[in-house]
Design a protein that fits this description.
There is one protein chain. This protein has a 5-stranded mixed beta barrel. A 4-stranded antiparallel β-sheet has the order 7-8-6-9, with helices on one face. About 25% of the residues are buried. It is built from 2 helices and 9 strands; from the N terminus they run ββββββαββαβ. The protein starts with 8 loop residues before the first strand and ends with a strand. The protein is α+β, with helices and mostly antiparallel strands. It comes from Cystobacter fuscus (strain ATCC 25194 / DSM 2262 / NBRC 100088 / M29). This is DUF4265 domain-containing protein.
Length: about 150
Amino acid sequence: MTGTSTAQHVKILFRLEQDEDGYPPVSAETLWAITMDENLYKLDNIPFFATGIAVEDVVRAELEAGQLLYKEVVHPSGHSTFRVVVYNHDEVPEVRETFKQLGCLTEQSHLRGLIAIDVPPSVSWDELKRVLNTGREQDRWDYEEACLARS
């Protein structure tokens, strides 16, 4: 979880569609969220596979079969989400530090080399894209834009 709030944290289930190559490697992902109001929750961790959502987005979820199931984004946070696959797994700590220095938060997946990156609105978009593209050009990593900030 990215926050240190004492508010009630809950898990929200996000169903995922796999492509013809079997990506993502899971059919669902759960994310921590803070209860805001009836059926409204603020996301409190970085998604690894769900797209179109970001940290601090307020989402609507409904209880179905004993689980909170994601329905829609109600209020975008202005954050963006990127995923980076680092080819040399020994470089993961260094890569995470690089994005931390830009003002981003990162989480490391149980899948080796996969990092989820939260980009707050305060981060320089030009600098972020420069770093992302440089790493890609140097064959250090590849990245995916999972959620670009919406106004």
